């Protein structure tokens, strides 16, 4: 519940699309007290929108866990628009202003390689898997890997470890000019703030920054989930993986197909 209310990037994107603010205030202990204060700070219209957003996120979570179906953010936004409009919670003009476009993976600059990371949770043994995939300016796959993690209970720590794995993997491969991209807004913000971090993921953030010194060019970029789809598919399809797996100039199964779709979209622009 704490992850859903305060850290979930999927929920944050839906809030952004419906012009519902997000709150990063984590000073309170416990998600319930935090939610009461945050909820009471909203006007009546945004309170209604927030309740429906949480309902959609929970519905989506059940789809992922029980049916292995991962809807696109754009599909959830379209449903929210229709549902809220039918309920009279938003007007036609407000509905037209909602963010509906699907954001695709964007190519890096010339001589720079982009590595996307994401995680997937295995509810059966409560383990997680990091997925990392790198592509060049044309969208061709340079490398990919999946790495399992066990006994990691904090959702934010999982995302931070995935980012650390991406940086470590890229360094081992010898790439010197890279963009590290993911849909974990909090992790990316902490890496770009440059100030001393006191959160639970502070040690991991420190390790990432230390490894980043070994690159000629490195940047950490937040993207929406639709633009991070290949890494998501890679992690999701291997969430029962027990051992790390690495591929050079290729990716397995559905991840390769998703990467090819990104490349086709890139070439059609």
Automatic annotation (TrEMBL):
Alphabetized InterPro entries for the sequence: RNase_H-like_dom_plant (IPR044730), RNase_H-like_EbsB-rel (IPR052929), RNaseH-like_sf (IPR012337), RNaseH_domain (IPR002156), RNaseH_sf (IPR036397)
Residue ranges of every copy of the RNase H type-1 domain listed in the record: 116-237
Pfam families named among the record's database cross-references: RVT_3
Name of the protein this chain belongs to: RNase H type-1 domain-containing protein
């Amino acid at each position: 519940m704490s992850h859903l209310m305060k850290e979930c990037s999927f929920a944050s994107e839906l809030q952004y699309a419906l012009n519902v603010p997000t709150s990063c205030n984590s000073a309170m202990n416990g998600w319930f007290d935090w939610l009461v204060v945050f909820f009471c700070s909203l006007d009546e219209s945004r309170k209604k929108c927030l309740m429906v957003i949480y309902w959609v996120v929970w519905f989506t979570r059940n789809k992922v866990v029980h049916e292995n179906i991962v809807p696109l953010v754009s599909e959830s936004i379209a449903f929210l628009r229709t549902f809220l409009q039918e309920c009279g919670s938003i007007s036609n003009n407000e509905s037209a202003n909602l963010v509906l476009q699907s954001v695709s993976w964007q190519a890096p600059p010339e001589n720079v390689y982009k590595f996307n990371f994401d995680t997937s949770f295995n509810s059966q043994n409560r383990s997680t898997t990091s997925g990392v995939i790198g592509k060049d300016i044309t969208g061709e796959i340079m490398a990919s890997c999946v790495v399992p993690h066990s006994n990691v209970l904090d959702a934010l720590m999982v995302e931070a470890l995935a980012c650390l794995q991406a940086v470590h993997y890229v360094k081992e491969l010898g790439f010197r000019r890279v963009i590290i991209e993911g849909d974990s807004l909090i992790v990316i913000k902490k890496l770009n703030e440059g100030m001393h971090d006191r959160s639970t993921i502070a040690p991991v953030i420190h390790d990432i920054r230390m490894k980043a010194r070994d690159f000629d060019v490195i940047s950490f970029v937040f993207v929406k989930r639709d633009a991070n789809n290949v890494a998501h598919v890679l992690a999701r399809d291997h969430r029962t993986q027990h051992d790390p797996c690495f591929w050079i100039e290729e990716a397995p199964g559905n991840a390769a197909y998703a990467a090819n779709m990104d490349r086709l979209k890139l070439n059609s622009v």
